[in-house]
Amino acid sequence: MNYLEKEKPTIDLAILDYFLEEATCSELIFYLRNNKLYEQTSVVVLTVSDDVAHKYEIFIIGGNDFIIKPFDTSEFYLRVRNQLKTKYLIDMLDAKNKLLTITSITDELTKLYNRRFFWENLIKEDNRHKRNDSEYSILLMDIDHFKKINDTYGHSGGDTVLYNVAQTIKKSVRNIDVVARYGGEEFIVLLPDTSKNNALVVANKILNAVKSINLDFLKGPVTISIGLASSKETDNYEKTINLADERLYKAKNNGRNRVEYD
Questions:
Q1: 22 falls in which pLDDT band (50, 70, 90)?
Q2: How far apart are alpha carbons 191 and 195 in whole angstroms?
Q3: Which of 57, 148, 174, 246, CA to CA, is 20 to 30 A from 84?
Q4: How far apart are CA 257 and CA 222, in angstroms?
């Protein structure tokens, strides 16, 4: 067990003797089943004991198979192969489930979180804000003249711009911040534990980073407009979003490529 805790090797199948020297077989199986890394590892137990109580004990604590020694080599091989096949199928199912989870919360084009996932996190953060009297900020942003980009360079060009802007925004914020595609050419960022003044610093960083995007097919820079709002300015998250939206339109009307926060 010390080796497992220190090295954390990948184990698909563990073949154990019921009578171990340093620890009981039951203790090791219990350790495997209560360790996230090994909870799906197949466990085959070998023993000279024909005691039914031992067999029941192994299955109850999580053993997958029980083979009495001496055993037929061919049967041993087939049973081990069956356990490895079962483990493989479990791993494939787990991978598919993880992929489905990622797909359900991710925007396919930009690889950012989708709107639904953003709202789930916003509600959680708003509840935390009310409990702890913390402050969070929202940045709502829109790519300037995006229709013109689509009309000039086609939808493939527009998609390239969307992806690059999305990734630039993501790289400009912290890992704890939630960046999502809000719809069309709009993006939104949730900044937990961030005051309005600090959010303004982040917004300007994003503004300048987007302006620095270099795409060969574009004749000019990509720019965005940003509306900023803090949770301290309203009494619920929906009003905070609406306030950020109002300021986004204000940024558009005031010439674009700017941040509005008042």
A1: low
A2: 9
A3: 57
A4: 9
CA dist 165 and 222 (Å) reads 8
Q: Name the residue with tokens 């003249």.
A: 145
Question: Using an 8 Å Cβ cutoff, are 66 and 58 in contact?
Answer: yes
* Burial grade of 90 (CB within 10 A; 0-12, 13-18, 19 or more): middle
Residue 185 known to be catalytic: yes
Q: Is the Cβ–Cβ distance between 228 and 200 less than 8 Å?
A: yes
Overall size of the chain counted in residues: 262
Is residue 53 pLDDT above 70, yes or no? yes
Confidence category of residue 147, pLDDT binned at 50, 70, 90: very high
Task: Please give the average per-residue pLDDT across 121-125, as a whole number.
Answer: 95
pTM of the model: 0.69
Torsion of the alpha carbons at 71, 75, 76 and 77, rounded to the nearest 10: 150
Q: Is the peptide bond before 9 cis (omega within 30 degrees of 0)?
A: no
- Which of 37-41, 80-84, 196-200 shows the highest mean pLDDT? 196-200
Q: How far is CA 151 from the centre of its chain?
A: 34
- CA dist 63 and 45 (Å) reads 7
Q: Is the dihedral of CA 56, 60, 61, 67 positive or negative?
A: positive
pLDDT at site 172: 97
Q: What was the pLDDT predicted at 211?
A: 96
Closest C-alpha among 47, 187, 52, 49 to residue 110: 187
Neighbours of 252 (CB within 10 A): 16
Choosing from 57, 125, 135, 185, which is the catalytic residue? 185
